[in-house]
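Final report, Chapter 2: Outcomes

The project's central promise was a pipeline that accepts a single protein chain and returns its three-dimensional structure in a standardized token representation, suitable for archiving and comparison. That pipeline is now operational. To close this chapter, we reproduce one record exactly as it appears in the project archive, with the input sequence first and the structure output second.
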Amino acid sequence: MPAGARSAAASARAVAARKPASGAAPRPRAGAASAAVAILVPPCSPAFHRRPAPGTITPVPYLLAFALTLLVEVPLYVGALALDGTGRARATAVAVAVNCATHPALWWFLGRFTGATAAAYWTALTLAELAVVAVEAALLAPLAGCRGPLPYAASFTANAASVLAGMLVARGLAAG
């Protein structure tokens, strides 16, 4: 191969290395935050399989998110349900059951917004979490045998703590 051809090939590789790969996250707009926005991204999402650019989504594996959810929410549910006289074993089983019922659907739904604007994602997250609170509270009442505001207060508290923990873990993963 002639020397000129080799340097042209090297130049082409250098140019290709600077261009974002097909399907890569879009570059942030001018004025966008330079830190990565850390959120939970389902493994079925294309965003999960590529390294995010600054100002874009940092993926967290599903099993990590689900394990963190259970780690945070189950003790809160057990404590709250104990106020109503629900035994520890039953409260644990109910807490795991309501999370198994809602977490996969929430994860799938939020995966639809991984390429969306930050405003669209945070709106979707807020509305989805409110729906999860309502569904989990509606499931807690008959499964744990509790009434009144307790299922709603327990569900809201557990889910708020879980979202906060998820954001902190995702932020830590993005930084490290």
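Archive annotation: Helices lie at 3-18, 62-82, 88-111, 118-144, 150-175.
This record, like all others produced under the grant, will remain available to the consortium after the project formally closes.
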